[in-house]
Amino acid sequence: MTTAVDTLAGALARWLPAQRWYAAKDREPREVLVERVTPLLDGDPALRHVLLLVDGERYQVLLGRRAALPAALAGAAIADTPAGVVYAATRDGELMTRLLGRLRAAPRGPVFEPEPGARVALDLPARVLPVEQSNTSLVLGDRYILKLFRRVLPGPHPDVELHRALRAAGTPHVARLLGALTVEVDGGRAALGVLQEFLPDARDGWALATADRTAFAPEAAALGRAVATVHGALADAFGPRNPAVPDLSDTADRLHRRFSALAGGIPELAPFEPALRAAFDRVRTAPGPFTLQRVHGDLHLGQALRSGGGWTIIDFEGEPGQPLAERNAPRHPLQDVATMLRSFDYAAHHGTADPDWARRVRDAFCDGYAGVLADPRDQPALLHALELDKAVYEVAYERANRPDWTAIPLGAVSRLLGAGS
Ligand SMILES: Nc1ncnc2c1ncn2[C@@H]1O[C@H](COP(=O)(O)OP(=O)(O)O)[C@@H](O)[C@H]1O
Ligand SMILES: O=P(O)(O)O[C@H]1O[C@H](CO)[C@@H](O[C@H]2O[C@H](CO)[C@@H](O)[C@H](O)[C@H]2O)[C@H](O)[C@H]1O
Question: Which atom of ligand 2 is nearest to the CA of 302?
Fold first, then answer.
């Protein structure tokens, strides 16, 4: 006999592949299990928090239910049931306005905890950010931004942990953390979301750099200083968990493993494999010693917001597709520098190509960074290998998400190898 939960699971299996935050986007999941349903609001509309196991991986979804959907929510429908239409509740401003206030400790349900000393208004009008991203973000009253993670992973979450430590250290370059949403799973707590101060006048670095390349150049030095300041604060906050290592053989091994995992099904990368692996091997003899530390882990121009208060770095969750242990592991800080340099190259090759601009902005960023910490250009082999690693990741990312963009990172692999170390 087919139950209501089976019907819902089937409808979710058809709906998931169209969601950008669903990792295995290119196919319908084999199995969707509704693991736990927590009622947050009864009536019409109703709101449920739902944990799903999708091919064994845990996700959270917020489901609304109404007797009939208003036209504005027509695109959010998931299933027609005898009790009403079930739909993606994050699209429903009315329900999302009430979300924070409904997260009271229902047994094993989601909980919202404000940070010590933070006074949080629980009923500000909500709107969902129109950008498609790895997660789903709601702006509350233009004062807060609530990011709801889609994957639910037990253990310390870097977006919460790093923001908390950076604000405690008084770093001006991060948005204030106001609270966190968590849930109990597998005997521990898992982060479901973070609430932060919203910067209403902010524009992200990608928008700025692509709108007017000339105006962006002076900003790059300030961005370099901001990233170095954040690195210094992260090193202080988390301490020398992994004190100076004599060489970066472990990093080289990791780059090789990542290449094998990422490039397997990508024939365009095959001709570059020997040169890429040689570049990764050169990391083994880069002059040390090195101190590894917590880093941002997924830094690019879209993660840097420019507002009246200067540069703010956002989204410290690392690459969302990686396991938490990998994302929380100490790394060389040049990893973040390398990924930001890749972003300048993206901006330079978006529209009319302007490699000279990329070189100027890259130098300005490194100058700014070098004013606070060591000059990234003092480690050319490491920087080169880390840029290549990110470009390979980007080829895989673009093929899966934006095939028309694949030429940008693929061209970069070729250019970076041609340029040598
Ligand atoms: N504190 C903030 N103030 C203003 N806008 C923000 C803030 N944090 C994030 N944003 C906006 O939300 C978007 C998504 O945030 P982000 O943390 O990068 O989510 P994701 O991990 O899903 O990419 C950003 O590109 C930015 O435009
Ligand atoms: O922001 P996310 O954490 O979801 O990061 C993913 O998506 C990014 C694109 O939105 C992608 O970034 C790549 O494209 C950017 C331009 O759109 C460019 O500035 C970045 O340098 C480039 O890597 C990112 O790789 C991916 O993880």
Answer: 19
Interface pTM, i.e. ipTM = 0.96
User: Using the 8-state DSSP alphabet, how is residue 124 labeled?
Assistant: P
Distance CA 252, CA 420 (A): 17
Beta bridge partners, 310, equal 307
Of the two residues 106 and 52, the one the predictor is more confident about is 52
Distance 93 CA to ligand 2 centre (A): 27
* Contact (CB, 8 A) for 333 and 369: no
Same domain, 31 and 179: yes
**Do residues 301 and 205 lie in contact, with contact meaning Cβ atoms separated by under 8 Å?**
yes
How many domains does the chain divide into? 2
31 alpha carbon – ligand 1 mean position (Å): 31
pTM above 0.90, yes or no: yes
Same domain (yes/no): 105, 159: yes
Find the 118 Cα to ligand 2 centroid distance in Å: 32
Amino acid, single-letter form, for residue 414: S
160-167 contacts, C-beta under 8 A, 24 or more apart = 160/191, 160/194, 161/328, 162/234, 162/294, 162/296, 162/316, 163/194, 163/196, 163/316, 164/115, 165/233, 165/234, 165/237, 165/238, 166/230, 166/233, 166/234, 166/237
Range of the domain at 96: 2-197
pLDDT tens, position by position, 180-224? 999 999 999 999 999 999 999 999 999 999 998 988 988 999 999
Residues 142, 200: contact at Cβ < 8 Å?
yes
Question: Do 55 and 18 fall into the same domain?
Answer: yes
Give whole-number Cα distances, 392 to 154, 215, 276, 321, 339, in Å.
29, 30, 9, 15, 11
